[in-house]
Each structure stands twice: as C-alpha cells, then as structure tokens.
Amino acid sequence: MNSSTNQVYSIIWHNNSVSLIDQTRLPNEYTFVEISRCEDMAQAIKTMIVRGAPAIGVAAAYGMYLGAREIETGDRDEFLNRLEKVAELLRSTRPTAVNLFWAISRMMKAAYETLGTIEEIKKTLLETAQSIHIEDLQTCHAIGDNGLAVLPKTPEQLTILTHCNAGALATGGYGTALGVVRSAFREGRLARLFADETRPRLQGARLTAWECVQEGIPVTVITDSMAAHCMKQGLIDVVVVGADRIAANGDTANKIGTYSLALVAKAHNIPFFVAAPLSTVDFSLTDGSKIPIEERNPEEIYQIGNTILTASGVEFYNPAFDVTPAELITSIITEHGVFSPEELITSQEKKVA
Length: 353
Known about the structure:
four-stranded mixed beta sheet; about 15% strand
C-alpha cells in the first residue's frame, strides 16, 4: 500500500482572497496567483490559469462571492441585478465546462433564497462557495474509490492510460480520473500510469506527469499518436479519462483526442471509463450533438513558447474538445456509484434520494 506525501491543491481560500496555482507555468515554475476581484477570476478561468471542469466550478463560485463583495448598495433588488451581471461575466469565460454554469446557478440560488441584509447575503455566498469547494474534494475521493472497485481484477497491478489532466489540478483536490489512479496506487493496484501528452496545450505532459512526480506515482508520458501502438503491444490494461460535460444519454465531451482514444480502446477490447462528478452531467441535453464545443486561439497549435512551428499563411482549426459517443464508454464513474451510459437517469434519481 502506498501513501501520497505531497498533495496538490489548485485552489486555496485564505486571507479573504483565492490563491490559484498558475497552471500555465507548470511544470517549470510552481507559482500561485492571488485573486481578490471577480474580473481577475474571470480572466484566470479564460486564460487557463485555472482549468478542469470541477476546478472551474469552484473558482467561479469564489468569483461570484468576490463580485458580490464589490457591490456597494443597501437595496436588495439592485444588489441581485448587479450580481446577475457578475454571473454573466463568469459564464462567458468557458462555454463547454458545465460545472461552471452549475456552480454559478447554485450561487445565484443561494443569493435569492437568503433573507436579511446585503451583508448576510454576502456571508451566505462565501459559505456556499466554501461548501462547493469542500464537497468537490469529498466527491473526488468518492469517485476514486468507486472507480477502484470496478477496475479489472487482473492483472493484480494495472497499467492505466489517461488523457489530458483530470487530477488535483483540475478539481478541488485528488482528481476524478487521477482520483481513480491515486486510489489504485494507494491500494497497490497500479503498476504504471501512461499519460498522453495531450496536444495542443500538453496538459498530460505538463500537468498530469507533474502531479504524479509530486506523489511518487510511476508515470510514462507518450505522444497522443502512440496510444494505439501501446495497446497493440499489450502495455495498457484500462483507460480512465475525465469529462467537461456529459449529455443525458452518456455522450461525453472531454479534451480533444479523447474520442480517438475511445475508438482504439474499443478496437483492442480495453475498458474505457469516464470519471466525473454528477454535476458534470447535463440532463437538459439529450445527446452529445447539443454540447457546445469551444474553439480556442490557433496560436496554441502553431506556437510553443517563442517557437513558431508552421509556415506563414497556413490556416488552423483548434476545437478544444471532442465528444465520445456513449456506446464507446464502458461505464461512468461518479461519486454516487458507477453507471453504464444508459443508466445515467438512475444516477440522477439516486442523487435526489
């Protein structure tokens, strides 16, 4: 059995402000950005200083409180109207990650349902943001342990492949897909993690590998195009990825490249798991075709640091996510249990119960 010795927390509330690990500087620089204004939080989300659907939700919740704190009025209706504009600003930062919208909606609900003075509403908003943060950490631990329970029984020590970063950096702590990896490592069931580098922003190489090094988890980085070869060579036992939005039928949006990974896993009869909190499931969307796909700056493709990779005049297409059809997904691992895609409606009922 192993234990983590250097746990990572991407978001910390202290001294009336939010400290964010600046994920754009990892792995070369481990630095924090102090956020005390809503506008700065919106910029941090948009520029991916903080990223990962659950972490974005936590950050947005704190952003709502920071915005509320800046509103100076004693009139309840005026306060709520101005708070709606804060919510609108934060919603505009990242269109795909449903946790962002879920957290903002929960914060607005708390504001509308709190009676009393403006200061009492602000106090409730901070308490709600802190609850969202704590609940996310608890959720990740539950996802990790639920995932451990459904991993293949053989071999005893598994080689797991993941894509992008769905770890502590992408959540309140511990992680979703990496939460499953951490639980497997803790119980002696992990032989090695293979991490796709994840073009174009290299979250697997920069972030997932960095997290593993902090905790002594054995990790090997491969390029995205090596996954099929590794599977054919018998190097991969199971695939576990995160999610940014899941439709009601189980279609799942995750970092670009996840769909192709699911296809090659299917071709090699390798289980393909999605690990995500139930807040990532958007029950208002019947299928994945309704999920908005963010398209990001083409600079992410043609430039690394100060190095230009392509000839002048080339055109670019840079979708940040793709959608994996439900039929390619073995199961969806949540904090309330593990469900096949068609059982997601059951998961909603279980959550309500």
